[in-house]
Automatic annotation (TrEMBL):
Quaternary structure and interacting proteins, as annotated: Monomer.
One GO MF term: arginine-tRNA ligase activity
Keyword field: Aminoacyl-tRNA synthetase, ATP-binding, Cytoplasm, Ligase, Nucleotide-binding, Protein biosynthesis
Catalytic activity entry: tRNA(Arg) + L-arginine + ATP = L-arginyl-tRNA(Arg) + AMP + diphosphate
Main subcellular location of this protein, as a coarse class: cytoplasm
Protein name: Arginine--tRNA ligase
Amino acid sequence: MTSINEQLTQQFSQALVKAFGDKFNEIDPQVWPARDPKNGDYQVNIALSLAKQLGQPPRAIAQTIIDNLPLNNMIETPTIGGPGFINIKIQATYLETQLKTWQNDLRLGVEKSAKIQKIIVDFSSPNIAKEMHVGHLRSTIIGDSIARILEFLGHQVLRLNHVGDWGTQFGMLIAYLREVYPDALTTANVLNIGDLVTFYKQAKQRFDEDEIFKETARNEVVKLQAGNQESRHAWQLLCEQSRREFQLIYDRLDIQLTERGESFYNQFLEDVIKQLKEKKILEENQGAQCVFLEGFINKDGDPLPLIVQKSDGGYNYATTDLAALNYRIQTDEAERIIYVTDAGQANHFAQVFQVGKKAGILTEKVEIIHVPFGLVKGEDGKKLKTRSGEIIKLKDLLDEAVSYARQDLENRLELEERKESQTFIAHVSEIVGISAVKYADLSQNRISDYIFSYDKMLALQGNTAPYMLYAYARVQSISREGNIDFEKLGENAQIILKDETEIDLAKYLLQLTDVIKEVERTLLPNRLCDYLYELSKKFNRFYENCPVLKSEEPVKTSRLLLSDLTARTIKLGLSLLGISILERM
């Protein structure tokens, strides 16, 4: 089903052409949801911007547009407000008909995108031999939600996990383990991730302080890169240990990813240098191979180069990212590539993308986007850390959220004198805790930093996951209380909208398509969160003002249908955010 906004845009575009000629065929009529519901449901602003071009007063232009609108049963006769705004009110009968079509529509009226693309979403990207920490939280959650929405709209999405599994740190770690724990380099599962992280820190300290050890570590890197069998086996064991730990987190967060780490592109790095040389954009600077970029200067005002090959012949992140970009375009045939990383990497990607264009790797046929996000901060306004100053492990953060959720649930059960099984308590606590963490992140504009607070994210009031879950569960309680099977309400059952809160809820339900398409365009999941929060509030107002089970037929069935459609919309919206629902809380 085409959204209301899209239908109105089409109708007013036709009216513009009919009124003023074909030269207005490409003009956007500027249809927006009305800011003040007293003026109607939608507002068309084009008359004001055409006044100078047409040499007519905006109100006269607005009236001409209205006079040329195609006949339809969707809207009431538009009115003109202020200097020339066209105010539109949707007819209740249209709302009733449209919502009725949702009854057997699993997609709730949301059509797939007209142009299906091959899209890569690059997100999460932890480092081997390190535990996932709070810094990986936003990339993982935001990237997953973006991928879910794009998949729902029909795009072919490749979810890539560009893990840090190559480089000097492995030579350093292998060299150290040869000394202190050689079994870890030959036998699987002898180390847990905590031990591996500890050894990594000790190896790094040795590397920084001991020149002989540093040389040994560098030799290990050379052996690894040369394909030495013993070194490769040791490297694979270290990677597998980390992967198992990563997967525990991904399973808990319900995240699907295809791993393609930095090591995958190692075989293509020389080709990148060759391609840059062929394009004559490579320059030697202090022994390193560089590309000088437009718009980038250092603190002294001198041009800032992007180094793609170090003076010792080694490569770096930029080289790998260029190789990855080339592979994703040439082999994966991606038409849109989305990188979900913290805002601090914005300059790096701007430089890589510029070099990609100069080298002919990146063409106009491919849309490439860096999706930046801000920091997660503690309630003191500083970067979120443990009391001892360590970065918080993601596993510990999730455990703590579930613990908070369990304590809150047990307190409520005690107050309500309600008995529930330990299985129920454990399940609800896990869903609420994990959902609260996800929703707290996604409900923020991703570009901003946000304050991490268990108390706020687990509150039953406000724009939180528990509030959304409770709104869904409330509808299910109506089903249980009235012994209603929503799937068997009948094909002939009608939706009847009389009460103001019913009409308000119906209008908002029909904005779902617009919101999902806006997230597709802007890659801002918080817009979907805002929609779900407002929808839940409108449902609660409807529920308070309109008796459901106590109403007489056919109003009772109508209100049951409206309740079910609301619950299904909440469930769909939350699923696109990666959040599971609960039938009971």
